[in-house]
Amino acid sequence: MSFGAPAEPAHTEAPVCPRHPDRVSYVRCQRCGRPACPECQRSAAVGIQCVDCVNELAAKVKTPRTAFGAATSGQPVVTVGIIITCVVFYILQWVVPAISDYLIYAPVYTSQLPGVPFEPWRMITAGFLHSQGFVLHIAFNMYALWVFGQVLEPLLGRARFITVYLLSIWGGSVAVLLLGQWNQGVVGASGGVFGLFATLFIIQLQRKQDVRGILVLIAINAAVSLMPGISWQAHLGGLVVGALAAAVIVYAPRGRNQQKLQWAGLGGIAVLLAVLTWAGSMLVSITG
């Protein structure tokens, strides 16, 4: 018997990382079996997984959400942002007093009176200004915003929270337009704060919780609203619009269409406020 030449060992290429073909890796993903270089390795419960498998698994995990459809969030960054904005504007009111003249709201600025500029954005900007002669004005509003914002922002979600707040400010200005004096200027975040009062009330009502505490708080602040120099109209408008916006969010049926229904409802409130603003501007033009 004769034997031929010894067989040569089959050539085997070194395994390389699929994401980094220039890197050799003998460590394989425990899930898909592909090589993974040190940069693409992720520690798993058992062994090592590649970054692609980790991302794929993470995408399949549902984000925890509150009963109102909001993704659970960490710190109330929107609340803090509003407070910082109000404080900055308050400082600017002292440093550059003329800034108030450009941001304060009075019904005349949403009228059709000749010679008067039509500046409807003041209905929102006035909510970030405060009385310079009464420091408790900004102090109370910012304290209330901080207390209620820590509770409501995580429940509603950041986008819904800021929307409810701004709609409440707008609602307060609309009430001033319809019920106030056409040449009387107003400032303050009270409309937004009263909107948050109403929002917590609606949430507690929906959860069948004791609402006596929030009702007492609203009653006390309503009584304070009747004092001279305070716009009860802005407080009333913010309270009503805040309640409407909260009801849209809280009572939207849970399910796939929950968020669509919520945003449709909030959009409807915005349209209603726009119509009331237009009607009020016509009224001021006629009576002014």
Automatic annotation (TrEMBL):
GO terms for biological process: proteolysis. Its main location: membrane. The chain crosses the membrane at residues 77-96, 128-149, 161-180, 186-205, 212-230, 236-252, 264-286. It is found in: Membrane. It is a multi-pass membrane protein. InterPro entries: Peptidase_S54_rhomboid_dom, Rhomboid-like_sf, Rhomboid_protease_S54. GO terms for molecular function: peptidase activity. Keywords: Hydrolase, Membrane, Protease, Transmembrane, Transmembrane helix. Residues 119-250 form the Peptidase S54 rhomboid domain. Belongs to the peptidase S54 family. This is Rhomboid family intramembrane serine protease. It comes from Arthrobacter hankyongi.
